[in-house]
């Protein structure tokens, strides 16, 4: 406007709402029962650590600060609000490469690009470098003709992220390929993308724990449980472990 303030209300309105369906699909908002139903020790461990960091920040910086702003409906800001805010940012950041001589990547919030939805089969590619050097830029390159009004999707995670990331960071499960990636990680055939051991193959103790957890139920038992389960998060957790087991069967 004339006062130099940029009106971003239209952008804020398109963001997923507090405790809406999108964020409730993330493990950050799963109940203890739903987390256990994942049969995924590494996912559960990372989720609980993330929750603890949120709690520590809330307790230290917000909880006892009487001057802290209220929520949109004039109620007090709670730990759940902060957990949602952290998830919201995580679900929208992009991992991009720095300068060529840095060998460093950055996680950045880039409005407009974060409006692109996920499609692993999309012909459109996110490419470039957002920082480092003259002319650095990040762009979506069209892989096919785009008509006015067409939705432009990209592949989240650069095509290397599996459903262990999708169920945490985005709140949904992707295709069979994303389950194959998780299976390959568990078997040590692919490096972990995120978490404490990002960039490394799975430790033998974690591999054993992951396989042991998945052996708690069979695929046929999971299918029967999925038919009667009512809780959306637990249904998602059962679908996750079923997908991983079916993928593991291809490689073992």
List strands and helices in order, with pairings:
Layout: H1 9-13, H2 21-24, H3 32-37, H4 41-61, H5 79-90, E1 94-97, E2 105-108, E3 125-128, E4 138-141, H6 163-170, H7 176-186, H8 204-214, H9 219-228, H10 232-251
Antiparallel strand pairs: 1-2, 3-4
Helix pairs in contact: 4-5, 7-10, 9-10
Describe the structure.
The chain has 252 residues and is mainly alpha-helical. Helix 4 packs across helix 5, helix 7 packs across helix 10 (232-251) and helix 9 runs antiparallel to helix 10. It has ten helices and four strands. The N and C termini lie far apart (61 Å). The strands form two sheets. Strands 1-2 form a two-stranded antiparallel ribbon. The chain has a two-stranded antiparallel sheet with strand order 3-4. The longest helix is centred in the first third of the chain and has 21 residues, at 41-61.
Give a short summary of the structure.
The chain is mostly helical and 252 residues long. Helices cover 43% and strands 6% of the residues. The protein is built from ten helices and four strands; from the N terminus they run αααααββββααααα.
């Amino acid at each position: 406007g004339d006062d130099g303030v940029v009106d971003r209300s239209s952008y804020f309105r398109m963001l997923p709402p507090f405790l809406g369906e999108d964020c409730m699909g993330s493990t950050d908002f799963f109940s203890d029962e739903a987390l256990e139903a994942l049969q995924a020790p590494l996912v559960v461990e990372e989720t609980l650590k993330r929750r603890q960091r949120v709690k520590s920040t809330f307790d230290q910086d917000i909880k006892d600060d009487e001057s802290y702003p209220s929520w949109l409906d004039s109620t007090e800001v709670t730990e759940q609000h902060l957990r949602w805010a952290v998830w919201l940012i995580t679900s929208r950041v992009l991992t991009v490469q720095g300068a060529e001589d840095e060998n460093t990547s950055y996680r950045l919030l880039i409005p407009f690009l974060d409006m692109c939805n996920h499609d692993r089969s999309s012909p459109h590619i996110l490419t470039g470098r957002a920082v480092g050097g003259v002319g650095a830029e990040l762009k979506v390159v069209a892989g096919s003709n785009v008509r006015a009004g067409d939705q432009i999707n990209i592949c989240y995670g650069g095509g290397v992220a599996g459903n262990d990331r999708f169920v945490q960071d985005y709140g949904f499960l992707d295709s069979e390929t994303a389950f194959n990636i998780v299976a390959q990680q568990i078997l040590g055939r692919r490096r972990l993308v995120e978490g404490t051991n990002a960039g490394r193959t799975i430790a033998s103790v974690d591999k054993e724990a992951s396989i042991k957890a998945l052996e708690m139920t069979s695929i046929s038992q999971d299918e029967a449980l999925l038919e009667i389960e009512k809780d959306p998060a637990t249904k998602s957790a059962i679908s996750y472990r079923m997908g991983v087991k079916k993928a593991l069967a291809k490689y073992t």
